[in-house]
């Protein structure tokens, strides 16, 4: 996977394209996650791959194998109320990082279908988080 030189511009273009296409994109498992900045309080939207798991969507905070967690992950730790845009709809959700055995089991299952996440994990000392997104009631 090639990382764009200007990730912010790349993400802005992807977000616009995704929204223009009715919150879908070429049958790719893509969603937009909007978090509230942990320090700024501003809304931040990030595109990311997801894995459907029953009534929840799972996202992986791999940050493309970077040594630190992505900003969106740190934001949702501070404020787990998020907004999800996926499959033609937008809804509020609650973000919960998976822990312990559940995280390990789910991460292993995801990496069977998406082995690049295993490569990301092998290249960093941090444990890559898996986050469950559940529609807020």
Oligomer: single chain
Biggest β-sheet strands, sense, barrel: 7 strands, antiparallel
Quick one: overall form? Answer: globular
Helix count equals 4
Give the end-to-end Cα distance, rounded to a whole number of Å: 37 Å
CATH superfamily annotation: Electron Transport, Fmn-binding Protein, Chain A
The overall number of domains is 1
- Reading off the top of the CATH hierarchy, the class is best stated as Mainly Beta
**Structural class of the secondary elements?**
alpha+beta
- Computed over alpha carbons, the radius of gyration is 14 Å
DSSP strand (E) fraction?
25-35%
Return the average pLDDT rounded to an integer: 91
CATH architecture: Roll
Tell me the number of strands: 7
Q: Percent range for helical residues? A: 25-40%
Report on this model:
- The protein has about 140 residues and is an alpha+beta fold.
- It has a single domain (about 5-135), classed as Electron Transport, Fmn-binding Protein, Chain A (Pnp Oxidase, Chain A), CATH 2.30.110.
- It is about 30% helix and about 30% strand.
- It is built from four helices and seven strands.
- It has helices at about 5-20, 70-80, 100-115, 115-120, and strands spanning about 30-35, 45-50, 50-55, 55-60, 80-85, 90-95, 130-135.
- Strands 2-1-5-6-7-4-3 form a seven-stranded antiparallel sheet.
- The chain is globular and about 35 Å long.
- The mean pLDDT is about 90.
